[in-house]
Design brief:
The protein has 4 helices and 3 strands; from the N terminus they run H-H-H-E-E-E-H. Strand 2 and strand 3 form a beta hairpin. Helix content is about 45%, strand content about 25%. It has a 3-stranded antiparallel sheet with strand order 1-2-3.
Length: about 100
């Protein structure tokens, strides 16, 4: 594999994934914060960045912004794999999706 993990998750790729998730899948981002980030009382969440090991979110809890780190159960190779694991994580929480 010629590209390093850092190249696979450049800031531009992280920004693109985060922008898409926050715009089109805000409900999923909230699930990640509540379930995987163990912030069950979060009322809203935003994906701030994503890398090969996990994602950084900010969650709204009782009117305060709380940083949340969610680690993946494996190291990802690229953005395509990020899509796969994000869907897998949701299916663990909401099997009907």
């Amino acid at each position: 594999m010629s590209e390093s993990v850092s190249e696979a998750f450049s800031p531009a790729i992280s920004d693109r994934i985060c922008g898409h998730m926050n715009k089109d899948h805000g409900d999923a981002v909230l699930v990640y914060a509540q379930y995987f980030g163990k912030v069950s009382d979060a009322s809203a969440a935003e994906m701030k960045s994503i890398d090969a090991k996990g994602m950084d979110l900010s969650a709204q809890v009782n009117g305060e912004t709380v940083p949340v780190r969610v680690n993946f159960d494996r190291t990802l190779k690229d953005a395509k794999e990020a899509h796969v694991i994000l869907v897998e994580m949701l299916k663990r929480v909401r099997p009907s999706d």
